[in-house]
Amino acid sequence: FLENQIEVSHIPNGLYYVRSIIQTDAVSYPAEFLFEMTDQTVEPLVIVAKKADTVTTKVKLIKVDQDHNRLEGVGFKLVSVARDGSEKEVPLIGEYRYSSSGQVGRTLYTDKNGEIVVTNLPLGTYRFKEVEPLAGYTVTTMDTDVQLVDHQLVTITVVNQKLPRGNVDFMKVDGRTNTSLQGAMFKVMKEENGHYTPVLQNG
Prior knowledge:
Belongs to the serine-aspartate repeat-containing protein (SDr) family. The protein is an all-beta fold. It is built from no helices and 15 strands.
């Protein structure tokens, strides 16, 4: 094997089928042809590759709440998914563009329109993993899969449920007369990982 050249010798006469795969970051396409080998075949077989037009992929994720309001600042990781289910982080450059030499492990954030747009991905299956949801929202689906089978825009929508806010009324009473006491002070604490922090003070 030499650069841009394959040499095969001592093959029997006959009809042969050759198929090659040309692969780039943006597109994969095959080249195939037939040729006949005879005793008179002495000239090298030359295949001319014609430069193809640049083709790219684009996937758009839209993040909304249950009322279809767009959510800004939600963080996702993007991984490729192999046939055996294994995951591999996708290398990206710039504004979320695939490149084999790009940075892996980046967190992708929805913009002011609640969107993440990733371009130039090779065809295949990908998974958006929500890693930084907004406070006050519950994540209904942590992982969202998308399959790229051609070079068309693919759009997916991911919904988070906004948590309802509750109201609590407090009353302090006299232990003997069971009458309410005016001027009582309360401090509301929130438990997080075994620690309590004040979130509301009412008096």
